[in-house]
Design brief:
There is one protein chain. With 88 residues, this protein is an alpha+beta fold. The protein has one domain: SH3 type barrels (Roll). Helix content is 26%, strand content 38%. The protein has two helices and five strands. The protein has a five-stranded antiparallel beta sheet. A hairpin with a 2-residue loop joins strand 4 and strand 5. The radius of gyration is 12 Å and the shape is globular.
C-alpha cells in the first residue's frame, strides 16, 4: 500500500524548481513543493508526502496523529522504507 506520510520541511533546496528537503523519521529527502503557492510552506512546516510530492500542509498535531496511526496499522516502516528509495 502506498500512503501519504508526514514530514517536516528542514530546508528550501531550490526555490525556482520548488524543491524542499523534508525529514521523515530521520530520513531526509528532497520533495517537490510545487503544488503550493509561493510562501505557503516553509522551514518547520509539516506536509503530507506522496511519491515525492508534498500534497498538503498539516499541523504538527495532525502529523503526529498520522504517524501514530501508520505505526498502529503497521504501515509506518514500509512507508519510510519507500521514502528512503525515492527522490534523492
Amino acid at each position: 500500500m502506498c500512503l501519504a506520510i508526514p514530514g517536516r520541511i528542514v530546508e528550501i533546496v531550490d526555490e525556482e524548481n520548488h524543491l524542499a528537503k523534508v525529514d521523515v523519521g530521520g530520513v531526509r529527502r528532497n520533495v517537490n513543493v510545487g503544488m503550493f503557492d509561493d510562501g505557503e510552506v516553509g522551514i518547520g512546516d509539516y506536509v503530507l508526502i506522496h511519491v515525492g510530492f508534498a500534497m498538503s500542509k498539516i499541523n504538527e498535531a495532525e502529523a503526529e496523529e498520522t504517524l501514530r496511526v501508520l505505526k498502529e496499522i503497521g504501515e509506518y516502516e514500509p512507508e519510510v522504507e519507500q521514502f528512503k528509495t525515492t527522490l534523492q
